[in-house]
Design goal:
Elements (H helix, E strand, L loop, with lengths): L1 H12 L1 H18 L1 H4 L31 H37 L1 H15 L3 H12 L3 H27 L3 H8 L4 H9 L4 H24 L11 H8 L8 H28 L2 H7 L1
């Protein structure tokens, strides 16, 4: 019941969050319906019809290999959303667990973990990912692990700041006095009281993950041809942008809509749930 009340407060009380979730929802629906909406195969070449302009046969034109741009864009949403979901969930789970544990334990563990977090955050995210992906390859599991390693420390820092306000409270002290172990206390007493911050972090990190995955594909270390990936589509057709702008425009618009939707959702969540101050203190 509490979740329903919070959902109504978020969606009903903030226009930005409503618009953001609507845009993200439309992206999800379109991605799921890609086989039904696509006019053709996203990987089939047509050497007789390269860089053709928009027409009834190809509503968004074709790329330099004669592949249907609309089909590739629609299927590209599936890849973007799948990679984003897996990487974001892994990042949030790892960061939340780490942040709650160090906030509860404090002492030497907190000092060591926070210094390691500072060390990881001192290296640019894209540079770290390039090194990991170049060494281990561009498989989905590698991307998920790499993004988790890069972004989980910053999530842990934010969640730790939120948990530090919860751990000293009476109900946590009472649970300790009853002899309960750390994990049950974190699960039942601490996590529900930092869930608002976790939700905002989830929406915010998701928008960064989308851009990061697309950036890797654009740089040639992400998805491999002929995978219908948005970043790879832009990279493949960047040399022809003056001649056939439609080949790059469709994936750019799709990527922009998803990122804008996630950013609006994160901004709306932060304002509706009142976690701006918490995020500011943890920065």
């Amino acid at each position: 019941m509490t979740v329903i009340v919070k959902a109504k407060r978020v969606l009903g009380g903030n226009r930005a969050s409503l618009i953001g979730f609507t845009i993200v929802g439309l992206n999800i629906v379109v991605a799921l319906a890609a086989p039904l909406l696509s006019p053709g195969s996203p990987v089939k070449n047509d050497g007789l019809n390269p860089i053709a302009g928009p027409s009834l046969a190809h509503l968004a034109g074709t790329d330099k290999m004669g592949r249907d741009v609309l089909s590739r864009t629609l299927y590209g949403g599936r890849i973007a959303l799948t990679d984003t979901l897996l990487a974001t969930v892994a990042t949030i789970v790892a960061g939340t667990a780490l942040g709650c544990i160090v906030a509860y334990r404090r002492g030497w563990l907190d000092e060591i973990v926070m210094r390691l977090v500072d060390a990881v955050l001192s290296v640019p995210a894209l540079l770290s990912l390039l090194v990991i992906v170049t060494v281990l390859g561009s498989h989905t599991w590698v991307l998920v692990v790499a993004i988790t390693v890069v972004y989980a420390p910053s999530v842990a820092r934010v969640i730790r700041a939120a948990a530090l306000e919860v751990v000293p409270r009476d109900y946590v002290t009472a649970a300790r006095a009853r002899g309960e172990r750390m994990l049950p206390i974190l699960w039942r007493e601490v996590l529900p009281n930092v869930l608002d911050v976790v939700l905002v972090e989830c929406a915010m990190r998701a928008s960064w993950v989308v851009l990061l995955v697309s950036s890797l594909s654009f740089l040639g270390v992400g998805a491999n041809p002929p995978t219908p990936d948005w970043g790879l589509m832009v990279a493949d057709n960047s040399s022809l942008i003056a001649v056939a702008p439609w080949a790059s425009l469709a994936p750019i618009v799709a990527l922009a809509s998803l990122v804008v939707g996630l950013n609006l959702a994160a901004d709306g969540l932060s304002k509706s749930l009142g976690v701006d101050r918490m995020r500011g203190n943890a920065a």
